[in-house]
Amino acid sequence: MLPQIAITCVLCDYQSLYERINPTPRKSLIEVARRIENPFYLQDLEKRATEQGLEWEYLGPIDGTGATLVADLEPTTDHVRGAIYPGAMNDS
Question: Helix 27-35 to helix 40-51 angle, to the nearest 10 degrees?
Fold first, then answer.
């Protein structure tokens, strides 16, 4: 759960909590850090990855969470679209 908390810290700019949990640099965390205005997180992650001898371009993602890093997970419409054709609603 620590990687998810770290992502939240970066997105919400909770720098003090981020510093306390001191997350391991991961590709997904770096991707999130690139999306925000505060340069602290990206600089910190790149610096620590280099210090740890990690090639941050090749760090592994958090398993199964790639889709959770998209900006909007909610549907953009309030109705479901299906295949509608004449006679689709008729009882047969």
Answer: 150
* DSSP per position, 50-64: HHTT--GGGPPPPTT
Residue 63 clears pLDDT 90, i.e. is over it: no
Question: What is residue 2's predicted lDDT score, i.e. its pLDDT?
Answer: 85
Q: Tell me phi and psi for residue 80, to 5 degrees.
A: -95, 135
In angstroms, the CA 19 to CA 89 distance is 58
This prediction's pTM: 0.62
User: Is residue 56 a contact partner of residue 50, using CB atoms and an 8 Å limit?
Assistant: yes
**Residue 56 scores a pLDDT above 80:** no
Query: CA-to-CA distance for 69 and 23, rounded, in angstroms?
Result: 17
CB-based contact 29:4 (threshold 8 Å): no
